[in-house]
Prior knowledge:
Belongs to the glycosyl hydrolase 1 family. The protein is an alpha/beta fold. The protein is built from 16 helices and 13 strands.
Amino acid sequence: MANEASMFLADDVVTSYSKSTGHDLPVQDLPLPPDFKWGTATAAYQVEGAATQDGKGPSIWDTYTHLTPSRTNNQNGDIACDHYNRVQEDVDLMKSFHVDVYRFSISWSRLIPLGGRDDPINEKGIAFYSDLIDKLLAKGIEPVATLYHWDTPQGIYDRYGAFLNTEEFKADYIHYARLCFSRFGDRVKKWVTFNEPYITSIFAHHNGVLAPGRCAAAGNDTKTEPWRVGHTLILSHAEVVQMYSKEFASQKGDISIVLNGHYYEPYSDRQADIDAAQRRLEFYIGWFGDPVFLGQDYPASMREYLGSRLPEFTPEERQLLRDTSRINAFYGMNHYSTKYARALPAPPADDDWTGNIEEGSVNHAGVEIGPVSGTKWLRVAPEGFRKLLNWVWNRYQLPVIITENGCPCPGEDDVKVAIDDKFRTRYFGLYLDAISRAIYEDGVPVQGYYVWTLMDNFEWSAGFGPRFGITHVDFSTLKRTPKDSSRYLKETFRKRRSQKTNGKI
């Protein structure tokens, strides 16, 4: 992921660094458990390229980037990092970093070019991912596969609007998931159904800044569409989890979903702002987390604020959610930053999607939440990360895997700055220290940390602008050059996992 495609008024207010938190925090290289796994993460459209190679069909991102190129900085993922044709090189790169895990996504339209349950299967697409998995295992790297990372097949979007038709989408998605489990599940033992359903629901079906670009300006119903999309995603997840547990139990794998979310601090000590911070977490994370992990209805705050805009679960769907809630083996967390939440005057706008709050990086006293990175929405705030780990654990009682975390550096357009990426190295160090404190001081069972990302890539609506990679990519030659942060990660995980703790730090 890593592209926050929506900015807020409060983010444009910048005070002096002297009023900011987090600038002087030292990296302490605190310990991590010996079996703690570290890895890297990517997404198919962002790195693979080969947009039409070997029978791949178009996704909504192929259409979106070509139909109106200005929406993605006049750039696209046709070539991206050309990972499709450079798999061995990239696997060797990961091996040189000593990673334990590689989290990648499967392109649905590479396997089923038109997307539907009655459409032909592309065996060359199957062969690509099978070969990738084999190469990873040969190097001792665990494959973690994400079934869906935003690249809906254009074919099913054209037929019925994809997520806007719950029953049709569920049937096609179950068929696609079954294909993946049957072809790859003998070797892949950790699965993710959906990456960041919040982003698909809001940024793609309300704000219109991600494919397929649905928004009020385009004549779409932003009052209800995001919530209908979210409802479809939740039910599709549950159906696939149930199918996996019944039909593929012999594979002895784990399955869950990946949710993204900032942590939110109150804008002030007013009770209204304290309540707003909690409500924002419920609108962002609880929206999906409560039905998926608790097997219950949407958070009460969402029912209160959204009313009839929020779909209802039928009795049969409620039972499905209850039955599948504890099959989810882990909580997959994508996290990048922390923000302040400020309550807005009632009533909310009729297409409000925030819980009637304004979020930003500066509080009532002019204190920034943390140093700004190479993109203005992402601030360095490790203490917020620790608080979010506690919030998730207290609410859902599942082991946590950090499935994405990272940042771009200020000034990273300069190659020397990009390679000597001290800002990113410090960010990783601070966030790993936060994980250590959450484990040893707070009792949160964090099992792994996958950095975003293996290499600079196509960052959605920002094109090739922000560079989140621990490997620099020259997009004119596609040459890969490891950044200093990759060496830091290799060494810090060796050091942190070898420290004796006796359960304390």
